[in-house]
Amino acid sequence: QVQLVESGGGLVEAGGSLRLSCVASGATFSIFAMAWFRQTPGSERKFVAGISRFGERTSYVDSVKGRFSISRDNAKNTVYLQMNSLEPGDTAIYYCAAEPTGGRTLWVPRSDYEYWGQGTQVTVSS
C-alpha cells in the first residue's frame, strides 16, 4: 500500500515563499513519476508540476513557470515543491501524487495518477 504524506502548507503573504514536501512509503520510490496538483472549492484538481522518476525531466503548468520548482530526493523518498513569488491565485489545497512509470525514465504524465496524498492547505493573502 503506497502512502503519501504532504507537509509544509500554511498562510503566507503575497510575494512570499513556501516549500511543500511529500514523503512516500510502501513501495520503491524511484519507480514513480511524482507530481503536485492543486484544487480550489468547486473546481477540479489541476496539475501544477511533475517530475520523472530520477528527476531528469520536469513539467509545469504555465501559470507557475519561473516561480515554482519541483525536485525529488529518491534516497529520502521525498518530492518537494518550492513555491516563490506566491500570488493569491495560488491559494488551494495542494496534493502530492504518484504514478508507476513501468520503466519509462523520462515520463512525466499530467493526469491519471494512481496514488494521492491527503493534501495540504496553502493560503496566500494579498
* Structural class by SSE content: mainly beta
Q: Note the overall shape.
A: globular
**How can the largest sheet be summarized?**
7 strands, mixed
The helix fraction, in percent, is under 10%
Q: In sequence order, what are the helices and strands, one letter per element?
A: EEEEEEEEEEE
Low-confidence runs: none
Strand content: over 45%
Q: With helices defined by DSSP (H or I, 4 residues minimum), what is the helix count?
A: 0
**What is the radius of gyration?**
14 Å
Q: What's the average pLDDT?
A: 97
Number of strands: 11
Provide an overview of this structure.
With 126 residues, this protein is mostly beta strands. The chain is built from no helices and eleven strands. It has strands spanning 3-7, 10-13, 18-25, 32-39, 46-51, 58-60, 68-73, 78-83, 92-100, 115-116, 120-125. Strands 2, 4, 5, 6, 9, 10 and 11 form a seven-stranded mixed β-sheet that branches. Strands 1-3-8-7 form a four-stranded antiparallel β-sheet, with no helix packed on it. β7 (68-73) and β8 form a beta hairpin.
